[in-house]
Amino acid sequence: MTVAFVTGAAGQDGSLLCERLLADGLVVHGLAFNQTEADAIKESSPDVVVHVGDLGDTEAMAQLVTWIAPDQIFNLGGISSVAFSWDNPLETGRVTGLGAVGMFEAARRCQEQTRRPVRVLQASSAEIFGQPEQAPQDEATPIRPVSPYGVAKAYAHQSASLCRSRGLFVATVILFNHESPRRPPTFVTRKITSSAARIARQGGMLSLGNLDARRDWGWAPDYVDAMVRAIRHEEPDDFVVATGETHSVADFVAAAFARVGIEDWPQHVQVDPALVRPVDATEQRGDASKAKRLLGWEPSVAFDELVGRMVDADVALLERLR
Ligand code: GDD
I need a surface site. Which of 131, 139, 186, 236 has the fewest CB within 10 A? Predict the structure, then answer.
């Protein structure tokens, strides 16, 4: 039986991935950062074998990987918030950067010890491109990050190709923004959809930062599917995963508020300069034609449908909490 190890198993992508791999018949081990996360994984996916540990503790991770002896490692763990990384660059570098490279090294060590191949999937990010001069961005776009998070992800991304040249199967998926009702409200989409649901019920305001930033937003389960396809592909490679369409934060707000019947959204939104980042990519738009060509991957959910699903989930959640 194929054994998979998923880091970041409690997150949006990690939880979706664990469910997918279990449904595919794999034995799934998941890494949680603390007991609260471990309990959440156990509750949603009781069949996952949960381990608690710090991805940045590379020696502990190497021992854990040797013990699990996985066939596949999906490295999704780490700091995932660009906003958080500005205030915590050291922690971001330690976990998102060094932690990833530690995982590649752990995989190599495990492979040498067991003499069985270990495949690794690294969750890379559009943030490695920083403020790109070309649009759309593809696998050949220059890597020039402009946030601490992007720098940490770039270190991991470039180390992945180094490890590949040293005989380890490491595939990367360069993920553009991908959302679902499982997103925490620290990310702008869920912040908007949960606020739209709340304001429709009881009024109030929503504070946001940069309303003009344009992002390429897709449906998270599609992006998890791309990860699975990339690790099962015959060759390890880099794949941009994106829809190719962009919308501004303001567009997202307008669509979410319209879904709950509010057309005059600017009356409910204020810009808080404290939420505007020191540097923020004006536009990120991905070209996923390589993933389409080689992996047969395509996004399945369009922007309006994505916003609608997230808003409806937040309206239903408020109903349940009533
Ligand atoms: N979080 C947040 N909160 N973002 C805001 C806000 C706010 O109040 N107001 C405006 N924004 C803008 C940000 O400045 C950014 O331009 C955009 O909304 C999206 O922000 P996030 O949802 O926080 O996501 P992100 O683009 O920084 O990062 C996400 O996508 C990356 C891939 O492109 C994360 O999922 C990363 O982990 C991922 O790598």
Answer: 186
